[in-house]
Design goal:
The protein is of the alpha/beta class. Helices cover 36% and strands 17% of the residues.
Length: 196
């Protein structure tokens, strides 16, 4: 699935629809973490989100493809559909087993760090791959005082060392205070900008 020794960031999500905020995080990840590529994992369905209001996979996939068409180092994937996985923990287990020489980093917004204890086998994610968390409007303090940040406090890597994150042995994670981007899939859908 990937070349040997690559440093790849994995950005999972519904992409319902994909938007400029996803691009912003991906570009920051490429630069700050010194990644070779960022893969967008378009989820077949998020177990924590209601099916009502969720766009068709084909539409969500198309929105991600359209947004990244000029981004040479970003790749839109249907890996979870092909692997038959529903949960991030299972996806990461299969990816790392199939690509033992690839350095994967899980990328997520601060909103997800705040609620990751609700995810299936969430601690195994931190033990499987390094994790990079990106600041999002209004979520930083809640995320950094939440259960995940507290549990893995000793594994936190400072922002200045974030470019080494791909080479760290998990658990290892960092919180990046990037320029805020206000794009929201919920707001786009509310304006009628995406078919569901």
């Amino acid at each position: 699935m990937s070349g040997r020794g690559l440093r790849i960031g994995l950005l999972g999500g519904s992409f319902n629809p994909a938007h400029e905020g996803h691009l912003h995080i991906s570009r920051e990840a490429l630069r700050r973490l010194r990644l070779d590529q960022v893969w967008w994992l378009v989820s077949p369905g998020n177990p924590l989100k209601p099916a009502h209001g969720m766009g068709k996979f084909e539409d969500r996939w198309a929105s991600a493809q359209a947004l990244t068409k000029d981004e040479r180092r970003m790749k839109v994937t249907d890996l979870e559909t092909r692997l038959g996985t529903r949960y991030t923990a299972d996806t990461l287990r299969q990816l790392t087993q199939r690509n033992p020489r690839t350095c994967f980093i899980w990328l997520m917004g601060a909103d997800n760090l705040a609620q990751i204890p609700r995810w299936w086998k969430w601690t195994s994610i931190f033990h499987r791959v390094p994790v990079a968390v990106f600041a999002r409007p209004t979520y930083a303090s809640r995320a950094l005082s939440g259960a995940a940040a507290v549990r893995f406090a000793r594994a936190r890597v400072g922002e200045r060392q974030a470019f080494h994150l791909a080479n760290r042995t998990p658990p290892a994670w960092t919180f990046l205070f990037i320029r805020q981007h206000t794009a929201s899939a919920t707001a786009i859908r509310a304006r009628g900008g995406f078919r569901t």
